[in-house]
Amino acid sequence: MTRDSDRPLLLWFRQDLRLADNPALCAAVASGQPVLPVYILDDETPGPWKTGGAARWWLHHSLTALSRDLRALGAPLILRRGESRRMIDELVRETGAAAVHWNRCYEPFARKRDEAIKAALKQDGIEARRFNSALLHEPWTVENKSGEPFRVYSAFWRACLAKGDPEKPLPAPDSLVAASAPASDSIGDWELLPTKPNWAKGFESAWTPGENGAHKRLTAFLDEAVNRYKAERDRPDIEATSRLSPHLHFGEIGPRQIWHATRAAMAAHNLNEASAEKFLSEVGWREFSHQLLYHNISLPEHPLRPEFADFPWHENDKALTAWQHGQTGYPIVDAGMRELWATGWMHNRVRMIVASFLVKDLLIPWQQGEAWFWDTLVDADLANNAASWQWVAGCGADAAPYFRIFNPVLQGEKFDPDGAYVRRWVPELAKMPAAHIHKPWLAPDDVMRQAGVTLGKSYPNPIVDHGTARDRALDAFSRIRKAA
DNA sequence: TTTTGAGTTGTTCGA
DNA sequence: GTCGAACAACTCAAA
Q1: Partner residues linked to A102 by β-bridges
Q2: Helices A255-269/A273-295 angle, 10° precision
Q3: Which nucleotides of C are covered by protein (CB under 7 A)?
Q4: A154 touches strand C (CB under 7 A)
Q5: What is the second-level CATH architecture of the domain A306-483?
Q6: Where are the domains of chain A?
Q7: A141, A148, A156, A175: most buried, per Cβ within 10 A?
């Protein structure tokens, strides 16, 4: 009879692809049991939100990095593909594991899946332990004075800050007892990378997936750009944001690490305090989105405000395609959509602009924008994506008011004043002068000639007139107000 | 207990 | 050219 302490412990990696500040890993090491790290590619658990295309590219590289880091500790990462519950069951039986550890996920389908797995393990006398690696505070621990979850961001974040510092991040273990390894898939066989065509070519120069890349990014940000964050974070033509979102989504770095690293840098380098606080408050928006999803499981599919169920959306496949391909004729919108396609990421300010354009200028259902982002963003995250689209559409928590309809020309002129961002992503407008680059249809003929731009040929005419579209959107919103 | 004021990210209009 | 008001409805907390 094998003693329990000799039986292996499955360490189930999911959206926590890191060794530092990984509570499930630390507890596994502390148990003294041999540790068997495993990742399961699960396209079979029912649910509409399979990992999107761009995120698969990231996942491939992140798993490769994690696998390398684990091997350095002497414990290879076991890869399996299939329904999570069946795979865990198989692995437990193959290895005689006595326990399974994992860090929590908050997607509704993941919670349901994990509950079922925990119950099944318990029934078989296998220990199942869950930990928090992904959030500063668990969603059920932040409540307003009535004991309800917050529905307004500022009050939510105030309450989080009042809780004081979140726990200090855990160090990465420097050694672990490895279990003898069962068979593993080879990551190449999972075909996570695009081939024909390879649309991810532009991703490689933009990103370094993996824990190491995440920390380099954070360090570089805290070194300098964080001081400019408050003033310049809305400028897509300037590198003033952290670009940590995909690293955060895959858990290559966690919010506790970001929190404490930022606070430490503030103390050590005399950082611009307001700027650093602003940065942390963006981490707060991520927390807010996660608790919204936790308390509202249909957030990705259905409007939080029920009256929006009757909103008069206009289905329009042609306009949707033009938006997706960056061919709307509005330069700032097209630049954003092309940046997204080329790099798997889009600057946050521009996300708001393109989202407002889809939802308010085109009146296309926000779920169609959400679906496109889900497939094309390397940082695609169910909570952030759903909450943010609902926020822009006006049907979410603490949402943008109905009358806030971004004017793509004004937004372009305000946040990309020289047109550098447009020139980078919409090269056919590269020779347009700044004064006209955000509204080429109003430019004089000689300016157009000199820039070599022919509307309708080298660059599209606007697919809608913004003024007309704005009136139409206000009318649509007033109709659900009356109906409500 | 009730009231009041403030609230991530905007635009337009008219003075 | 600049500036304030108006554009809902609701949540939350302070008074």
Answers
A1: A12, A130
A2: 170
A3: 7-13
A4: no
A5: Orthogonal Bundle (1.10)
A6: 4-133, 135-168+213-295, 306-483
A7: A156
Residues of A marked as catalytic? 282, 285, 313, 348, 366, 389
Token pair of A243 as six digits: 């670009």
Mean pLDDT of chain A: 95
**Cα–Cα distance measured from residue A450 to residue A447, given in angstroms and rounded to the nearest whole number:** 5
Report the alpha-carbon distance of residue A34 to residue A28 in Å, rounded. 8
**Strand (E) or helix (H) holding A130:** strand A127-131
Structural tokens at position A203: 């991703």
- A147 CA – B3 C1', rounded, Å: 22
Cα distance between residue A369 and residue A374, in whole Å: 8
Nucleotide B14 C1' to residue A359 CA (A):
29
A309 touches strand C (CB under 7 A): no
pLDDT band at A196 (very low <50, low <70, confident <90, very high): confident
Query: Distance (Å, rounded) from C-alpha A78 to C-alpha A204?
Result: 25
Residue A45: band (very low, low, confident or very high) from pLDDT cuts 50, 70, 90? confident
Please say if the pLDDT value at position A269 is more than 90. Answer: no
Dihedral over alpha carbons A14, A15, A20, A21 (to 10 degrees) = -110
Q: Which CATH superfamily groups domain A4-133?
A: HUPs (3.40.50.620)
Reported as a pLDDT band with limits 50, 70 and 90, residue A6 is confident
Distance CA A262, CA A253 (A): 13
Residue A4: pLDDT over 90: no
Token digits of residue A478: 């007033």
Over range A222-226, report the average pLDDT. 93
Question: Is the C-beta atom of A484 closer than 7 angstroms to strand C?
Answer: yes
* A122-136 confidence digits (pLDDT tens): 999 999 999 999 999
Q: Which residues touch strand B (CB under 7 A)?
A: A 152-154, 234, 282, 285, 348-349, 352, 388, 391, 398, 400, 403-407, 410-411, 414, 466-467, 470
In this structure, of A13-22, A286-295, A473-482, the range with the lowest mean pLDDT score is: A473-482
Span A445-452, average pLDDT? 97
Amino acid at site A295? H
Q: Which nucleotides of B are covered by protein (CB under 7 A)?
A: 7-12
Q: How far is the CA of A463 from the C1' of B15 (A)?
A: 35
CATH of domain A135-168+213-295: 1.25.40.80
